[in-house]
Structures are given as C-alpha cells and as structure tokens.
Design goal:
Structural class: mainly alpha
Helix content: 55-70%
Distance between the termini: 65 Å
Radius of gyration: 26 Å
Shape: globular
Number of strands: 2
Order of helices and strands: HHHHHHHEEHHHHHHH
C-alpha cells in the first residue's frame, strides 16, 4: 500500500454574478449631477426665474418692443462681459474696462473731428489705443508680478483722469463734438449702431454681435489650444508653465481681448449718440465682472464658460428694464443687482458642491 495519497483535483466554482463593483473613479455619475457640473447651468435657471418673474410682475415685458429693449441692454453689457469672463477664467480681472470703453470712444471722436478726418481713421486709431491699453495691463502684470487688482486699478485712475482732462483741453467742454455729419459716419453707424426689423420690431445690431461673439468665445474655449491655455493658466500658473503653456502670451492677449471689447462697445456708444461724455464709464467695470461671476466664473480662475455670462448679462438687462416696466422705483435697481449677485454666487457654490459630491 502506498504511503502517499493522491489528492483529488480541486473544483473551483465560479462566484455567482452580482452587481458590478466600482471604485468610485470610473462610476458613471447621474445625468443631473453631470449637468450641474456645467458652470452655466445655475445662471440659466436663475435667468429663467427672473424672466418668468417679470413676465408676471410687468405684463408689458411680453411685448416684442419691450423684449427688444431688454436684449439691447443685455447686449451692451454682454459684449464686454465675454472677454472679461475669459480673463477671469485665466485667473485675472480688469478694473479699467469701464473707463476704457469711454477712452476708445473719445479717441475716435476727437481725432476725427479735430483733424477733420474720415471717421474710420478715428475708429482704427481707437482700436490701436484700446489694444495698447490691454497690452500694457498684461505686460505690467507679468513683468511686475503685481496682482491684477492693483495694476488695473492704476490704469482705471489714469484713464479716468486722462479722459476728462484731455477732453476739456481739446474741446473746451466735458463732451466731444457731434460727428454725425462727417465722412464715413453712416457706414460706421451701420456696423456698430444700426437696427433691423424683425416682425415689425426694431432690433439693435449689437444683439447679433453679442451672440456672434458668444459663439466664437465658446468655440475658442472648448475647441482650441488657446482655450486650454486659458484654463491652464487660471487653474495653476506654475504647473501650466511647467508643461509648456505660454503664460505670458496668454495673459497679455486676454487683456488685449478686453481692450477689443472696450473698443467695440465704445464705437457703439459713439455712433449711437454722436457724442461722448468724458466722465462716463465709472462703475461699469463692476457690472461686467458681476455678469461674469453670475455666469459661473470664479474670481480665483480656472473655471467658467462663455455661455454663462450671456445669461448673466441677460439677467442684468431683464432686471434693468423690468423694474421700469413694472413701474417700480428705479433707485432700487442697484440693490436688486446686489442681492442677485450674492444669490447667484451662493447658488453656483451649491451647484459645484453638489456636482462634485460622490
């Protein structure tokens, strides 16, 4: 008899099928949470709520002409809010944006009138000046390492003083002269300040430009290398530079985009009213920043979209005109905007926390 015993081969029974295990990193999140992760979702819901509220509180808002006026008010804010939002996603903000609009308009007006040039010469020079202001802000920022708050606050004060002093020196008044009879005015007005008919309602051309710029900004952010650079420098500038992102180029060009927006809005104001008040623009920079913040952009950078500020600007236009159509005291406008800003920030904070919670 053998001293060793042959062991029978073990039979392995496969485990019963059960629910698929997940470590939490590859698990598909619910659609609702994925939608909430989008920075524009919160402001979209807020814009719908404000719109419905004023439809009920101010029946005249339902008229086509009223809605055209609301969209016009939103477009003049939204055109500037778009480059301001891109700059904020890149981790910076510009306090000189409001007075830069007036600087651009004053440059085009005074150069054309005082030198009796075709107004297009003034428009081109104003573009160069606006881009130069943006480039200066960006260059100062990257060369000195100072916060954008300090750099652009200095530019804000400089432009505010120059606007008033130079206008008084050149025209002897606080406003520029009327340029409506000068060569090229009608052609420039058609591009920057004309209207067109839609179903018997006059719609300003700025509404079209606003939507075109929003689509272009969205494409840049989501489909181009430059858009990736914007998010990278806003998220972590040091890490972005370490992986080859041209931080200096990105920062300077973002400020120049704000300059371009200031030029465009400045030209609209000039060719809408034929003249410019040199003391205007102060405080508008806060409106542009607030529209971007309400639209989901973070002051700390690295997060946001171009669609969110569109809804943010629409909310501003809706509130601005809705208060008038409702017959309320317009003195409450800024208070309402402050409440709306704080509410939007809190909602966006809750949305982000909910979207990132597992």
């Amino acid at each position: 008899m053998s001293m060793t015993q042959q062991a029978a081969p073990a039979v392995t029974t496969p485990p019963a099928p059960g629910p698929e295990q997940s470590d939490g990193r590859t698990r598909q999140r619910p659609l609702a949470l994925r939608l909430l992760a989008r920075p524009e979702v919160g402001v979209f819901l807020g814009a719908v709520a404000v719109f419905v509220f004023f439809l009920i509180a101010a029946p005249s808002v339902r008229q086509g002409s009223s809605m055209a006026t609301i969209l016009y008010q939103a477009s003049t804010i939204g055109i500037m809010a778009l480059p301001v939002a891109l700059l904020m996603i890149g981790g910076e903000f510009d306090l000189s944006a409001g007075v830069a609009v007036i600087t651009s308009a004053l440059t085009a007006s005074m150069l054309s009138y005082q030198l009796t040039l075709n107004v297009w010469m003034g428009v081109i020079v104003a573009l160069v000046v606006s881009l130069g202001i943006g480039a200066f802000n960006g260059w100062m920022l990257v060369k000195t390492g100072l916060p954008s708050f300090l750099v652009t606050l200095g530019t804000f004060l400089i432009l505010q003083g120059v606007n008033l002093a130079v206008t008084k020196l050149v025209t002897g008044n606080v406003a520029t002269d009327d340029i409506s009879n000068m060569d090229g005015f009608d052609q420039a007005r058609a591009i920057f300040a004309s209207s067109f008919d839609v179903g018997g309602v006059q719609v300003k051309i700025t509404v079209v430009w606003w939507l075109v710029f929003a689509a272009l900004a969205t494409w840049v952010l989501l489909r181009t290398k430059y858009g990736n650079w914007i998010f990278a420098v806003g998220g972590n500038q040091g890490s972005a530079r370490a992986v080859g992102v041209p931080v200096t180029f990105t920062k300077i060009t973002l400020f120049m985009l704000v300059g371009f927006g200031a030029w465009f809005v400045g030209m609209h104001q000039l060719f809408s009213f034929n003249t410019v008040q040199s003391g205007e623009g102060v405080g508008q920079e806060l409106i542009f920043i607030a529209a971007a913040v309400i639209g989901g952009c973070l002051l700390t950078g690295g997060y946001g979209s171009a669609i969110g500020p569109v809804f943010g600007a629409f909310m501003f236009g809706m509130v601005n005109q809705g208060i008038v159509y409702a017959g309320w005291n317009p003195d409450w406008f800024k208070a309402f905007l402050g409440v709306m800003l704080l509410g939007a920030v809190l909602i966006n904070l809750w949305v982000r926390r909910t979207a990132t919670r597992r």
